[in-house]
Amino acid sequence: MNRRIVSATLNLPLPPEAAFRLFTARGERDWVPGWEPVFPVETPDDTAPGTVWLTASSEEETTWLVASRDFPRSVSYARITPGVRAGTVAVTLAATGAGSEVTVTYDMTPLTPDAAEALDEFAAGYPAFIRSWEELIAARLA
């Protein structure tokens, strides 16, 4: 089993100060269908380092933790899906003449052979996955 590191960039017609929120636990609710983070303790700032939230699907539950934040330039998250995978998601934002260039990097380690196969599939489809983010956000902004 091998660690998978994948990265891709999307462009948004928003300055980093506005685009940053779209990549936070609460902000993703605005454009990710079915995204419903649950905070085990009330938190006024979902980007504060150390903040924890959970997401769930019918197959698995993931625990997220804000690892670092440098508003509006970057935010990173640790994420663990018990018995499946663990790793980080890093989001960096840079101002452009038309808005922001956003780079999203997943660094994931599979915890089982089945998870390794699933991560291989995820890595193969990653560019299309990030393009879908750009499309979902554009539709939300329209």
Automatic annotation (TrEMBL):
Top-level taxon: Bacteria
Q: What is this protein called?
A: SRPBCC family protein
